[in-house]
Amino acid sequence: MVQRALVSEVEFLALPESTQHIELIDGEVVVSPSPSYWHQELLKRLVWSLEQWARTQTIPYTVGMSPLDIRFAAGRILQPDAFVLQGTVARDHSGPLTQIPQLVVEVVSQDRVYDRVTKRLLYAEAGVEEYWLVEPSGLIERRRGARLEERDEHADGVLCSKLLPGFNLELSELFRER
Fold first, then answer.
1. pTM reported for the whole predicted model
2. pLDDT digits over 145-167, tens only?
3. Rounded-to-integer distance, Cα 62 and Cα 103, Å
4. Residue 71 bridge partners (DSSP)
């Protein structure tokens, strides 16, 4: 049996800067392959919609996207595809963000278990209030509540959230091929 060496958070943060999707979970470094074009197109559209919403709010919100490190707990540094947190991040901030986002979005990759189970449980433990799983085929699964166990699915119509007052995402527009 091959035993893998665990990596400390200090060692992980000493890695060279990269645009690759690299995460740390309890000492294990997880490296993901590049996403597909459609994954990135959906992510771009979602982030744009969230940014447009954030600009209309009277209190500041930060909308971010991968690759950007967020410390969800000691030894747990993840890079959600997109996220929304209340407040701003200083321009000169360096290192992982430490504020837990209210909303985390993952465009589901080929490793479905990682997005649907592993990351959901890690986000829930950290206190994320809502988690959207975007299926590239045209479905958004919204998770919320204790341990992000409450779930509903949206394949058409408009997606909105109590966390984001006034936010409306037209799903036909999000998934429309251009």
1. 0.93
2. 989 999 999 999 999 999 999 99
3. 11
4. 77
